[in-house]
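thread from #wetlab-drylab

HS: before we spend reagent money on co-crystallization trials with flavin mononucleotide, can we at least see a predicted complex? here's what I'd submit
DV: go for it
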Amino acid sequence: MITIVVGTNRKDSVSFKVALHYAEVLKAKNITNSILNLRELPEDYIISALYENIGKNEQFNKIRDRMNKSEKFVFVVPEYNGSFPGILKAFIDGLDRAKALADKKCALVGLSAGDQGAGLALSHFTDILNYCGTNVLAYRLRLPKIGDSMTDSKITNQLYVSKIHNQAQKLIEF
Ligand SMILES: Cc1cc2nc3c(=O)[nH]c(=O)nc-3n(C[C@H](O)[C@H](O)[C@H](O)COP(=O)(O)O)c2cc1C
């Protein structure tokens, strides 16, 4: 089971559209997968589910369970102010590191409106995942100028399509 984490809680995010595409690619390869959009986090997540409140928010407990049960992950990470979104770090901070992340495997996809494709964001996030014991696939995808590469919410840039296909295959074999 591969969980595709949408690394932002922004409404109508492009990251979610990229996750939908990735899910179809995995499905075509007969790999069971599900999308976990950070938009599903409780609205009061920061104050009701972290630190002294860990375990007390039933809505978030279900999300933690999904992460604990998943064998591999794809994190779709948009570039926000030169790094990854703060909500993604807050999400990681609410997990049980040993059960959710340690000794698991993941692939990273970065996207941006600009020409960096979240390269720095992926490096920052890799450091954190490695600290948590997660093995990150070396083939990290950067999708710069994502707006120019989509039509009607679908990825139409064939180079991106083929890179996602290649990364998904590597993640399956990882
Ligand atoms: C708070 C915020 C900060 C952003 N910072 C950057 C940035 O530093 N560089 C960049 O190229 N795009 C930046 N963007 C644009 C996003 O990379 C772009 O919207 C992209 O579609 C992915 O984000 P999304 O999944 O929220 O749609 C930013 C967007 C937001 C909402």
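DV: Residues 158-173 form the longest helix (16 residues).
HS: ok that's useful, forwarding to the group
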